[in-house]
Q: What sequence folds into this?
């Protein structure tokens, strides 16, 4: 019964604090300067390409991270077995290589954009 009372006290304490946090944001806090989101009238094929590239980079990064976690779990569950640890080591190595490729592709896009003022994703060339 004492454990229940502790949990109840913690829940009531959190419930008492949350409305105050919600009221801390006033309309003056949020300032919207302009509508920068694409609308139906200004959607271009380059926006679709940019969305697809960003989606592929994000999904491939998540998949690589999942493979890294699976390799770690395999290593733990191998229990000293040579073959199991070798499989786990290969999976972890391949996942780290995949993460390095994804992050370097993402970094390369932003470095080229910053250095040469070229938006590779949207295929926009801007004057120097």
A:
């Amino acid at each position: 019964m004492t454990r229940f009372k502790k949990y109840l006290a913690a829940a009531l304490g959190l419930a008492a604090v949350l409305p105050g946090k919600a009221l801390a944001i006033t309309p003056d806090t949020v300032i919207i300067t302009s509508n920068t989101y694409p609308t139906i009238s200004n959607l271009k094929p380059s926006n679709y390409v940019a969305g697809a590239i960003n989606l592929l980079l994000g999904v491939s990064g998540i998949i690589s991270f999942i493979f890294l976690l699976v390799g770690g779990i395999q290593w733990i569950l191998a229990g000293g077995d040579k073959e199991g640890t070798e499989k786990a080591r290969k999976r972890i190595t391949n996942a780290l290589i995949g993460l390095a490729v994804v992050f370097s592709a993402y970094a390369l896009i932003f470095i080229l954009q910053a250095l040469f003022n070229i938006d590779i994703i949207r295929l926009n060339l801007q004057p120097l």
Observations:
- Residues 2-125 form one domain.
- Residues 12 and 74 are 41 Å apart (CA to CA).
- The chain has a mean pLDDT of 78.
